Amino acid sequence: MASPNHTCIAKNSLIFYTFFVPAYRPKLVYFFYPFLIGSLFLVFFAASNAYQLPILEIGGEDDTDNSITELNQDLKTRREAVDALKLQAEEYRGKVIAHRNEAFTLKNQLLILDAQIAKISVEIQTKEQEIEITKLDIRGIELRIEQLKKIIGRQKERIADILRIVYQNQEKSELEILLLNDSLSDFFNHAQYIENLHDGLHKQLIELKSANEELESEEVSIKAKQDALERQKKSFEDQQYGLKDQERVKTQLLEETRESENTFRTLLQELKSQEESVNEEIILLEKTIRKKLEDEDAAKKLEQAKGELLSWPVPKNTITAYFHDPSYPYRYVFEHPAIDIRAPHRTTVAASASGYVAKTRKDPNCDGRYSYIMIIHANGLSTVYGHVNGIDVEEGQFVIQGQAIGRSGGMPGTCGSGRLTTGPHMHFEVRLNGIPIDPLLYLP
């Protein structure tokens, strides 16, 4: 072991050569500088272990870990419930299909309605669970955001600590550091410490950037989940309306038929005759009115409206029955030639495009007669607005796109709705040269 005197002599010799032999100065700095920078790493590594914190994993430092565990368990339970409910809904869907393939009797129609009501009830329960799952997903993201903010705060504190130490050591020259240490070993350790500080600072900055990027991603994710939640709530409301619609159809069917198969068959025949009569009337009107509109002024107005796209006749909403819908209750009587758009009773109905009013069929005594408005447009198109409760235009009148033409109907048997409607909605047909086509092909 070297005595204090030997250490002092070595240090004095080093100082002597450094100060009094100029040629040694750059060589000395060049020789010791790599050790100076390199020695910082080991010391910082030891220090940084005390600061070590998982950046992209959930820590167990507070109640967050327990909250997330409970949340995940709740999510698992609810997802299992959703899977079971979906199986139930499939069973009821199978029953509906099976009954539809059987004879079209009152008894069978009631069985179909019962199966549809049960299916929709299960789908409502499913949607309730899915809404809760989305809420739990949102809560999980919120917890992660809280955790990331804490992590980012701690990282900023560490970076500040490192910068302070780096700044303090940068104020000292290599010679001062050399003279402040009692041995070359201490000098090398100090140099390693400084290098480690720089490496650690670089690592913390990378991790801070990563945490910030994840935070931004989670904030985008939570917005998407919140939007999805609103859509699910809207779908939930639609399903509830759908359930009420099916229950109304069943109630109305029982009231109209008094549970008599003979009455049911008579009612269906009346419905079929009414549909055929309306369809023939529309086709005949289509040809007749277009001939009348061949005069110069009428043709000019239609030509000006030629480039118009169709617009929704009522505010865009849930479609309760599609064009040629296989689930339409009276499909065995006739194909559904329209889309049914959910609309509260007496919603304002607007012209889907500019054109001439060809027909306004009213229900003056409000005895449950089917009322409709027909408008002739350019390009061989015409539109029909069915189950209307009120009519605000006259036959032969030219209307512009978006102009109010009437009000939508309500419950079965009410003014203009008809006897076997499926509840308040807008029956909207689009015809090309008199033939019904899918309105969704023309709507935005």
Write up what this structure looks like.
With 444 residues, the protein is of the alpha+beta class. The chain folds into 2 domains: 64-254, Up-down Bundle (Methane Monooxygenase Hydroxylase, Chain G, domain 1); 263-441, Glucose Permease (Domain IIA) (Distorted Sandwich). The chain has 9 helices and 11 strands. Strands 1, 2, 4, 5, 6, 8, 10 and 11 form an 8-stranded antiparallel β-sheet that branches. Helix 2 (24-38) runs parallel beside helix 7 (184-257). The termini are far apart.
Q: Output the CATH topology of the largest domain.
A: Methane Monooxygenase Hydroxylase, Chain G, domain 1
Q: Report low-confidence residues grouped into runs of 5 or more.
A: 4-60
Q: Mean pLDDT, rounded to whole units?
A: 80
CATH uppermost class of the largest domain = Mainly Alpha
How are helices and strands ordered from N to C? HHHHHHHHHEEEEEEEEEEE
- Percent of residues in helices comes to 55-70%
Class from secondary-structure proportions:
alpha+beta
- Provide the domain count: 2
What spatial form do the alpha-carbon principal axes imply? Answer: elongated
Provide the gyration radius in Å.
Answer: 40 Å
Query: For the terminal residues, how far apart are their CA atoms?
Result: 92 Å
How are the SSEs placed, and which strands pair?
Elements: H1 4-20, H2 24-38, H3 40-51, H4 64-100, H5 106-170, H6 174-180, H7 184-257, H8 261-292, H9 296-304, E1 319-321, E2 339-342, E3 348-350, E4 355-361, E5 372-376, E6 381-386, E7 388-391, E8 398-399, E9 404-408, E10 425-432, E11 435-437
Antiparallel strand pairs: 1-2, 2-10, 3-9, 4-5, 4-8, 5-6, 6-10, 7-9, 10-11
Helix pairs in contact: 2-7, 3-7, 4-5, 5-7
